[in-house]
Specification:
By secondary structure, this protein is of the alpha/beta class. It is 52% helix and 10% strand. The strands form three sheets. A five-stranded parallel beta sheet has the order 7-8-9-6-10, with helices on both faces. It has a three-stranded mixed beta sheet with strand order 1-2-3. It starts with 6 loop residues before the first helix and ends with a helix.
């Protein structure tokens, strides 16, 4: 706090902080408001400051109206709150006054969030920089503070944090960082958290792009004959973040992405990629790109365990209470949702949104009966365990007393050919992999070789009950 301020201003600020703490709770106040300071109080305008751009952006996006309301509760003459970053060299003092009793002046930042505090320039600095680079839209909620860490995602979280905390000139440890997981398990959350944190630090240029946005940007640059400028922008950043890599299409686009990837990595710049499958399974992506992606740190984010799902629900309920103070979900109901909705984090969010809507719109308390009724369509049958080709090879090799390297080798002896054909057959029947992909996983064989093996085992199983029983036993072992 500025010690040069009049005593009555400091008293008002103390009262405002007391009101804020009471409204948002001690945990949220400590996280977001403990480092905010009063810089000035003049007529109808309050000047506050925070130490980082990220903090300013977050308060702007989520607590603008609440801070203004608390000030007006202490001093009805206040119509504007002006927030700056203390590390900024220049702070413009000009504000646009809003006369009471008109409602607080609102603008929209680059993410479509309402800003009721009259921040100059609309968008937060970090978001403005990102938009200026042509990045994909960012969601202010997707940051590290809101990411719930558990056993299934701890390695991915730690690697993302290391990238976010790195500074220009630091040695890059893992490049590229490649994160893969199924839908709704937190890939996009981590990638956007890296972008928010990196840009908020001030020294980095972090660009977040979906694969679709990258393709659109490249095609537009070719059409407008600005391809060189497009390439210069991409290769001039510190951290390139690409989401949904599996959607990158087009031979020319993939070639440009490959050149950009190589240029950034060779220059010691960080690249972070996310997709719904490991690099080797990106069948539509050029093999050279897949190889480069696999050469970094490849991390899988696993499914959400029940304990982690419950922790996510508790976190989301706490966040909802900042805007809906009366929202309450009994522990038994949260435990029921965590136990029943197992597919992904988005379904958990959807379940809570339904309970919140029912509670606010009908005035009913959240009960077990209400929860069972409202979320029943989100409860899906348990998906079968995802089978990996490597697991099939391992189990088949063990059963036939050969090594996995034998299955992948060019050996044509009888004691290796039959197990290899059985393994290829199981790979085709128990996975969604294509024949060419299965062939690549079996030592780079042609898809016709796989097709021959599948047809051969199908024929034998239909005529040899002993082999049929053997294959069924292997299926059970693989699917356990």
């Amino acid at each position: 706090m500025n010690s040069q301020l009049p005593e009555h201003s400091q008293q008002h600020w103390t009262q405002v902080k007391t009101r804020l703490r009471a409204e948002v709770g001690e945990d949220i106040f400590s996280s977001w408001f403990a480092r905010i300071e009063l810089d000035g109080l003049a007529a109808d305008t309050v000047s506050l400051s925070v130490p980082t751009r990220f903090l300013r952006s977050w308060i702007q996006s989520h607590y603008a109206e609440k801070v203004l309301a608390c000030w007006q509760g202490v001093d009805a003459n206040i119509t504007r709150v002006d927030l700056t970053v203390r590390t900024a060299v220049i702070r413009q003092a000009t504000t646009v006054p809003v006369k009471a009793p008109e409602p607080p002046r609102t603008t929209r930042d680059g993410n479509g969030k309402v800003d009721g505090m009259g921040f100059r320039g609309g968008a937060a600095p970090a978001a403005s920089q990102h938009e200026a680079l042509g990045g994909s839209p960012l969601d202010g909620r997707l940051n590290f503070d809101n990411f719930v860490v558990g056993r299934s995602n701890s390695l991915a979280h730690a690697a993302a944090m290391q990238v976010a905390n790195a500074r220009p000139g630091d040695q890059v440890m893992f490049n590229p960082l490649y994160i893969h997981a199924g839908v709704g398990l937190g890939k996009t959350h981590l990638l956007q958290a890296v972008t928010w944190a990196g840009n908020a630090s001030g020294g980095n240029k972090v660009l977040y792009l979906t694969a679709e946005k990258f393709m659109y940007g490249f095609v537009s640059a070719l059409r407008t004959q600005t391809a060189l400028a497009f390439k210069d922008v991409l290769r001039g950043i510190n951290v390139l973040v690409i989401d949904d890599m599996q959607f990158l299409q087009g031979k020319q686009t993939q070639a440009e992405f490959s050149h950009t990837l190589n240029s950034l990595i060779d220059a010691g710049r960080q690249v972070v990629i996310a997709a719904d499958r490991p690099p080797g399974d990106l069948e539509a992506i050029d093999e050279r790109v897949r190889s480069r992606l696999a050469g970094g740190l490849v991390v899988e984010m696993g499914s959400l365990g029940e304990e982690l799902r419950l922790e996510i629900l508790n976190t989301r309920v706490a966040a909802a209470r900042t805007h809906h103070a009366g929202f309450d979900v009994p522990p038994a109901v949260l435990a029921y949702i965590a136990r029943s909705i197992t597919h992904n984090g988005r379904d958990l969010e959807g379940a809570l949104n339904r309970l919140l809507a029912c509670s606010k719109l009908t005035g009913q308390p959240v009960t077990m009966e209400l929860a069972e009724r409202e979320v029943r369509d989100l409860i899906r049958p348990q998906d079968p365990r995802k089978v990996k080709i490597e697991e099939i090879q391992r189990i088949v090799a063990r059963h036939y007393n050969v090594s996995r390297s034998d299955l992948l080798s060019s050996r044509r002896t009888a004691n290796v050919v039959r197990p290899r054909q059985v393994a290829m057959y199981l790979a085709k029947t128990l996975t969604l992999r294509s024949l060419p992909e299965i062939g690549r996983r079996f030592g780079g064989r042609d898809h016709t070789t796989v097709l021959h093996a599948v047809r051969k085992i199908e024929h034998l199983v239909g005529n040899d009950t002993s082999l049929a029983d053997e294959v069924e036993s292997l299926k059970r072992q693989i699917q356990e």
